[in-house]
Amino acid sequence: MDWFFGLNMGIYYMTDRANEIGLGIGRGRGTYQGWTREWLYWYDCEGIRFPTPEEQAEQAQQQLGSLIAKLKERGIDPDILKLCWLTFVHPTT
């Protein structure tokens, strides 16, 4: 992350840190819908970029895959847990 935009008295300026609300817009290289280039991203006050919705979905899929693998290692069938959860959350009357 190279820079942020700030707003002071109606004038935008570039800065190397996030503003007082802890949120900034910065640029970074990435791929979106097959296009690899520089994009604008949201960053927190520590300069850490917030993941895009696509990146969040990918991270969730990876976490789910890891959890499923751990359950199977312990001899637990993930499909049974899903069935139990659905029965508990949506009981038939």
Write structural notes for this entry.
There is one protein chain. The chain has 93 residues and is an alpha+beta fold. Helix content is 35%, strand content 32%. The protein contains 2 helices and 4 strands, in the order ββββαα. The strands form 2 sheets. Strands 1-2 form a two-stranded antiparallel sheet. The radius of gyration is 21 Å and the shape is elongated.
Q: Features of this protein?
A:
single chain, 93 residues, alpha+beta, two-stranded antiparallel sheet, 2 helices, 4 strands, elongated
What does this entry show, briefly?
Helices cover 35% and strands 32% of the residues. The chain is an alpha+beta fold and 93 residues long. The strands form two sheets. Strands 1-2 form a two-stranded antiparallel ribbon.
Explain the layout of strands and helices.
Layout: E1 4-8, E2 11-15, E3 23-32, E4 35-44, H1 53-73, H2 78-89
Antiparallel strand pairs: 1-2, 3-4
In the sheet with the most strands, the strands line up as 1-2
Helix/strand order: EEEEHH
Bulk shape: elongated
Q: Mean of residue pLDDT? A: 78
**Number of separate helices:** 2
Task: Tell me the structural class.
Answer: alpha+beta
Q: What integer value in Å does the Rg equal?
A: 21 Å
Could you tell me the strand content as a percent range? 25-35%
Please bin the fraction of helical residues. Answer: 25-40%
Record field, number of beta strands: 4
Distance between the termini: 54 Å
Low-confidence stretches: none
